[in-house]
Amino acid sequence: MGCGSCGTSKPGGCKSNGGCSTGGCNRLNVHDWLMNLPIADADGNCKVVEVSFKQGSRKEFYRNTTLQYFDKGDYVTVEGIGGFDVGEVSLTGEMVRLQMKKKNVDEFNAEMKKILRRSTDRDLETYRISKDREPSVQARSREFARNLALQMKLSEVEIQADGKKATFFYTADDRVDFRELIKQMAGEFKLKVEMRQIGIRQEAAKVGGIGSCGRELCCSTWLNDFKSVNTTAARYQNLSINQTKLSGQCGRLKCCLNYELDTYLDALQHFPDNADSFETAKGTAFLIKKDIFKNLMWYIIQGGTKHYPLTIQRVKEIKRLNAQGIKPEELEPVDVTTGKPKEIEPQFVDVVGQISLKSLEKNDKRRQQDARNQDSRNQGPRNQDNRNKPAQQQRGQQQKSQQRPVQQRPPQNRPPINRPPQPPRESKKD
């Protein structure tokens, strides 16, 4: 979905890494499906606009007190802390009201900041100068933190468009005393410094990357509500507790472990709760796993290594028998390939002398006779062709002899033959 209006050096289709004017490359975008609908009440239309900063990594709501109408992708100048800031309009209209309701933001809050004007060329030039300073400021601030031996990590720096304030996002495990750090950074950069601590998941969302599924991280594209994830979700889904496979790029458990958890919990309601173990004639059987797709429960007998897949009905029946003090002899496991109970293999029985071979011999003779008849039918046309073969060869030789050229003998010197003269013939006249 690359476009030619991208103002960055990123390739086409950069998704969340670019900043095209249409807003199609911003993060956490919301499709305005109400955009083309006619507005019945213009006065009751939502006067709040959603503005994104830092290529969509941060979004805030601003009140539109001007008489101008802003489209998605327009740059606007908004109120900042001690100055102004420049952002990009990401959402307008009634969808903003729905987003505010989702994030518990009051639409009529008097403290909500306002949009000052549409960004001018001078505002945009100041905005670009401030953004170009961010990499150098971030590198220098990390040097200050390293020299002070602070146990923190500066992940991102965002400078206000007017260049008067900078927000430093950092991650830390414990509380950090960064008062001396703020003094050094304020004296070096001539900025008002604000330190904001974020979590590991928020840092991964800001940095971005590719997950193990081959797609962009959910936290950097659409996920904005981070819920706690624990290993219980993996156990419900019969996943092996392997931290290297269950952890994401942030070092925490993957957020996608919660996506199918509700489906598994609904399916597990049909399984018995008190079926972790039961008694059989061979010993105690312990539950290994539950297969919600085939409605099977896998058991293993104590002291053995063989696994027995049982149906839910069979497990309930065995538990009912154990309640009566009965231990079943057979578990009646299910054949996983067919989904039916396995048939008991028949035992060997000596049947020597009980089977007559006359019927088998008759069938064998009948097969041999059929084979001879089939051979005779197949060889008939072949013999006839062999009989006609000599006659055909003879005709071919005669045709070849007729086509041969006649050879003339050379003249020989023979004595002339003396014959008596004959009288002339008389002509007959009528």
Describe this structure in words.
Helices cover 31% and strands 17% of the residues. By secondary structure, the protein is α+β, with helices and mostly antiparallel strands. Among the domains are: 15-119, no CATH class; 127-205, GMP Synthetase, Chain A, domain 3, CATH 3.30.300; 227-270, no CATH class; 272-323, SH3 type barrels (Roll), CATH 2.30.30. A hairpin with a 4-residue loop joins β10 (283-291) and β11 (296-301). The chain starts with 47 loop residues before the first strand and ends in a 28-residue tail after the last helix.
Keywords:
430 residues, alpha+beta, GMP Synthetase, Chain A, domain 3, single chain
Largest sheet: 5 strands, antiparallel
Strand content: 15-25%
Low-confidence regions = 7-24
Instruction: Give the number of helices.
Output: 10
Series of H and E elements? EEEEHEHEEHEHHHHHEEEEHH
Taking all Cα atoms into account, the compactness measure Rg is 48 Å
The neighbouring-strand order within the major sheet is 2-1-4-3-5
Envelope shape: extended
Task: Name the helicity range.
Answer: 25-40%
For the residues shown, what is the average pLDDT?
Answer: 80
Main structural class = alpha+beta
- Intertermini distance: 121 Å
> What is the tally of beta strands?
12
Quaternary organization:
single chain
